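EI: anyone free to look at a 319-residue chain?
SC: sure, send it
EI:
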Amino acid sequence: MTSTTWRILLAFAALLAAVPSDAARCLYVSSYHSGYEWNDGLERGMDPILKGRCEQKRFYMDGKRNLDADFARAKGLEAKALIDAWQPDVVIAADDNASKYLVLPYLRNAKVPVVFCGVNWTVEPYGYPYDNATGMIEVGPIEPLLREVRAVVNNARRGVFLSAAEMTQTKEFEMSRDKYGAAGISIAHTAVTTMAAWEQGFLAAQKEADFIIIGNYAGIKDWSGEQARAFVLRHGGKFTVAYLEWMAPYAMLTMSKIADEQGEWAAKVALMILDGVSPRSIPIVANRRWDMFINPRLLGPSGHRLSSEITRKAVKVEP
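SC: here you go
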């Protein structure tokens, strides 16, 4: 036996020993795809907690690269078939598509326990809670960003929410519209599907709005981060804010939700359920943590000034 073969056998033995043969089965259903920043953060939070405690399978619904509802429904059916075949002891359902196209039609009050996470703002469209489900809602930092917009932009009255044209971004816009509206500020949604349309929307907002909320680009199939960074450097001027870490290179101020927090919470609750705790007895909660970023190269030429507290605490990023 060669040394290489021996190392492979040892590695395989270690893998088998890591999860007992009678371990519980944990199925992770992602609304998105492996390699998407938010999804990878969820898995980064989950994996250390579930490792060695249950046998894991992952199913990706690929909902950012494929926005069609028929595609999402087909993926929901595929995930349901996997559940029927593999019989997991708990399902972790991440983000809205998994709840809309899998949990609501097929798993509501079913035998298998469900832990959802990443559902944006409200669970009302999916009818949670169920007897077999609990979860963590994903809430964006609208009010903290609104306070900074009002502090930085004198007499702000009009804003633009610039994002990809997809379901999650529509929910984010509607919540922003309501919160800003209560403060006497109107928000319009520029929802786009191409890089060229994003650039046109950004230029139009420079003329029409007092500030811009930079939403998610995921869903813009020809998106180029390098092109977008150069574009906002060349054409930016109005105050820009964002709420996702990977959008920080394109905004002056970002207060971002933390995907790891959602994954950590979901994994810990999944283990509680495997230990016998009823899902219905675990309250649905919202995320509690934010990261903060500022972009000095965008802020400097704009003339906008942030508070010394934010400048001191925030991570500096470069476009």
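EI: DSSP finds eleven helices and 13 strands in the chain.
SC: 👍
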